Backbone:
């Protein structure tokens, strides 16, 4: 079989996902854990690792665009920089996802990492979230439930002369300067902590996850990406989602559900699905070598109900907000998209509020 540019990019997505999965497993890189540590015990180690990933990815985008190595415009998947600012979609979806990931014991990326480590609860979460994401992406569920509300509250920035919702353009500063200054500021904050500087795992986790996002932008938005799009244009059966993109996990879960229903159609296997699979495999390899692989199941019906409800909220909320803690919180924010920032803040707010409520209930029942 010919090793086409399409297969090359899918292979890069898989291998990069493997690295992400292995490193996330080793370093315990976890957004929900970062919020929990910060809100409940005041520990900012994992939060700083997450901010490091954002800063690294953001600097990568600045360099790629300033050097002309890659083009990351408003036609990416998802459309991060679109001039249509669907603020309610970002906020509502982000809140739903934040609540859901707390109930389900982890965000999309952490769910995949936990599956690789033998957690069967997370496998159930994946199945339910994928089914919900499929409904949002490939049926009329979104239009029926959310379409009218989101259309009515979307702000058309193009009417104000803005071709993008990127913060550099909205402020008139320019994305290169805005992104560079913001990334350097984040790096300064992250490394201002002596404890963080002394934690190899935290530094490794943030640097690698951020670097993986850069790889995604580079291969899909640069010279390889152009060749990929040209290949797809002339293919007898056009592959799914041949667009400039980087790592995100909720929409790929919906795409995975679609592929599982029609496994003979290999054109449905896309960048996101390969990245998703790579994270699971990478986490599994790490768990085997670290001797941390162990099977885990629900402790009771209440545990199952929490995870199932969380998976529903993650699947619907993640697609509604057009990304998860990685897809919007790192990949989207690296483009300076205002919607990504709104989603990120909403995810953190939803998760923090849910954690506070859970602790309040525990105290009340004690």
Residues:
């Amino acid at each position: 079989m010919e090793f086409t540019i399409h297969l090359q990019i899918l292979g890069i997505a898989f291998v990069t996902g493997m690295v992400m999965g292995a490193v996330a497993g080793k370093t315990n890189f976890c957004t929900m854990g970062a919020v929990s540590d910060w809100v409940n015990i005041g520990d900012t180690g994992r939060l700083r690792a997450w901010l490091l990933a954002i800063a690294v990815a953001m600097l990568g985008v600045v360099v790629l665009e300033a050097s002309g190595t890659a083009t990351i415009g408003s036609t990416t998947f998802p459309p991060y920089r679109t001039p249509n600012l669907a603020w309610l979609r970002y906020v509502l979806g982000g809140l739903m996802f934040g609540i859901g990931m707390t109930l389900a014991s982890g965000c999309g990326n952490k769910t995949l990492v936990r599956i690789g480590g033998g957690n069967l609860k997370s496998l159930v979460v994946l199945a339910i979230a994928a089914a919900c994401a499929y409904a949002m992406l490939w049926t009329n569920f979104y239009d029926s439930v959310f379409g009218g509300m989101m259309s009515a509250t979307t702000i058309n920035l193009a009417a104000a002369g803005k071709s993008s919702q990127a913060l550099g353009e909205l402020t008139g500063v320019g994305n290169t300067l805005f992104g560079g200054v913001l990334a350097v500021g984040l790096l300064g904050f992250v490394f201002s902590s002596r404890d963080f500087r002394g934690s190899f795992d935290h530094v490794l986790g943030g640097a690698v996850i951020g670097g993986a996002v850069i790889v995604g932008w580079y291969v899909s938005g640069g010279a390889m990406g152009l060749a990929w799009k040209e290949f797809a244009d002339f293919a007898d059966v056009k592959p799914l989602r041949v667009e400039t993109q980087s790592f995100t996990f909720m929409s790929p879960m919906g795409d995975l559900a679609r592929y599982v229903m029609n496994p003979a159609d290999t054109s449905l296997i896309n960048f996101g699905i390969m990245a998703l699979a790579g994270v699971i495999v990478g986490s599994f390899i790490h768990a085997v070598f670290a001797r941390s692989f162990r099977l885990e199941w629900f402790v009771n019906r209440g545990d199952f109900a929490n995870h199932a409800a969380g998976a529903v909220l993650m699947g619907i909320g993640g697609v509604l907000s057009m990304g998860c803690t990685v897809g919007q919180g790192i990949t989207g924010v690296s483009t300076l998209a205002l919607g990504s920032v709104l989603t990120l803040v909403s995810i953190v707010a939803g998760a923090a509020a849910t954690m506070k409520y859970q602790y309040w209930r525990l105290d009340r029942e004690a």
